[in-house]
Amino acid sequence: MKNFARPLTAAAVFATVALTACSAPTAGSAPSPSSSPDSSGSSSNPAAAPSAGTTSGAFGGFATAAEACTTISQQATGASLLPLSAAQGKTAELEQKKAELSETAERVPESLKADFARLNEVAVAGLSDQTVYSSGKFQDAMAPVTKWLASNCS
Questions:
Q1: Residue 88, CB half-sphere, CA atoms under 13 Å: how many?
Q2: Is 27 helix (H, G, I), strand (E, B) or coil?
C-alpha cells in the first residue's frame, strides 16, 4: 500500500501545480478579430460544444482562451488523478474521465495536440502500470502541457 500511495501523492501535488498554472488567460492570448464567434452567447458545457474535434481556431476546438485554459488544466489534473478513481473501484467514473480526457485531446490547439495525446496515452497506461508514475514518465508527459498552460494561460 505504501508504494501505491507515493505515486498518488506525487500525482496530487503535480495536479495542484498544474491547476495553479492556469488561473486566467492573458490579454495577449485573446483570439484575433478575424475569428468568427459562431456561438453567440450560448453558455454550454465545454464537453458538449459543437464540433468537438475541430482544432482549427486559435484555441483549438474551444471558443475562447478561458475555455481552453480551464478545460485543458482540469483535464490534465484529472489525468493525474485517474489512478485514484481506479483504486476506489469507481469504474463508471473512471470510464467517463478517460472519455473526457480523450475528447479534450481532440479539441486542444494544434500546438498542444501531440503533447496532450501523449499525456492521455501515458495517463491511461498508468492505470495498469504504476511505474509510469514512479519512473517519471507521467511527469515527462505532463511537462509540455504544463509549459503550454503557463505560456498561454497565466
A1: 10
A2: helix
DSSP string computed for 36-105: ---S-S----GGG-SSTT---BTTBT-SSHHHHHHHHHHHHHHHHTHHHHHHTT-HHHHHHHHHHHHHHH
**pLDDT tens track for 87-109:** 888 889 899 999 999 999 999 99
22, 69 contact by CB (below 8 A): yes
Q: Is residue 83 assigned to a domain? A: yes
Rounded to 5°, the CA angle 13-94-111 comes to: 65
Residue 138: give the domain boundaries: 2-22+63-153
Number of structural domains in the chain: 1
How many residues are listed for the chain in this entry? 154
Strand partners, 51: none
Question: Is 48 part of a structural domain of the chain?
Answer: no
Nearest to 20 by CA among 78, 74, 64: 74
Separation CA 44–CA 23 (nearest Å) = 20
pLDDT in tens, 40-90: 333 334 443 444 445 567 788 999 999 999 999 999 999 998 888 888 888
Residue 93 forms part of a structural domain: yes
